[in-house]
Amino acid sequence: MLWDISPIAFTISIGALHLPVHWYGLFFSSTFVYGLFVFRYLFRREGRPQDEVYDLVLFVLAGTVIGARLGHVLFYDPVRYLTHPWKIFAVWEGGLASHGAVIGILIAVWLYSRRATDQSFLWVCDRIGVTVPLSGCLIRIGNFFNSEILGRPADVPWAVIFARVDLLPRHPVQLYEAFCYLLIFLIQFRFYLKRGNSVPAGHMFGRFFILVFSTRFVLEFFKESQAAFETGWTISVGQWLSIPAVLVGIYLTWRARQLQRMFGVGWDTEPRRPDSPDA
């Protein structure tokens, strides 16, 4: 398959000003639009004030953009940005890292939960763990349209030639990831609808970390190197960053099961202190 689609979807012209709108930007921004509707559904389903969703989405939007940009700067090309620090703000040149986005989202959710009513950090994170995999799916499709995050050369029948880069048939690893994240979203959403509030806080978020970053670790073997300094490494930067994420996921799910075994707590229930009058 030959892929030679322009990364620019259309151009907005205002007088002498011409602003190109990239496919990646459309897919990236659509994640927040769909996230707004999904979270309104989740809040409505659980009897939460739906107006608070707008604040949550704004926090997550800021955390995603800032975290993803700083993640790329620090994890993938630190030398370039330390020697040219003004380039950090040149987001139109590309460069966003999903691991940095996760860190940014966590910080944003923590800040949001401190001011929200009856919404703990893990309560919000559990629902983030339901919705974010679909965001990953849309973003990887955007990467495919942009002919970036390329797969390794391959001779499989479904290999893609990204004509804007070179003439080598490659694994369409962006689509591999997009499909996997879509499947994880469906698994997570089905689990949420089926189990409701019957699992302790952190369980769904732990599942998200395990499923998403285990998938990321495996699919990195099909990708070209994303950082110049990782040439010759046994595993890539993305894989090194995925390992602690999977371990965090294992801890969160283990903790949730321990709480359920010890206290019989549900998703929205905090464990009672052993010395409390009702314990």
UniProtKB/TrEMBL annotation:
Belongs to the Lgt family. It is a multi-pass membrane protein. Pathway: Protein modification; lipoprotein biosynthesis (diacylglyceryl transfer). Its EC number is 2.5.1.145. Catalyzes the transfer of the diacylglyceryl group from phosphatidylglycerol to the sulfhydryl group of the N-terminal cysteine of a prolipoprotein, the first step in the formation of mature lipoproteins. It comes from Methylocaldum marinum. GO terms for molecular function: phosphatidylglycerol-prolipoprotein diacylglyceryl transferase activity. HAMAP family: Lgt. This is Phosphatidylglycerol--prolipoprotein diacylglyceryl transferase. A 1,2-diacyl-sn-glycero-3-phospho-(1'-sn-glycerol) binds at R140.
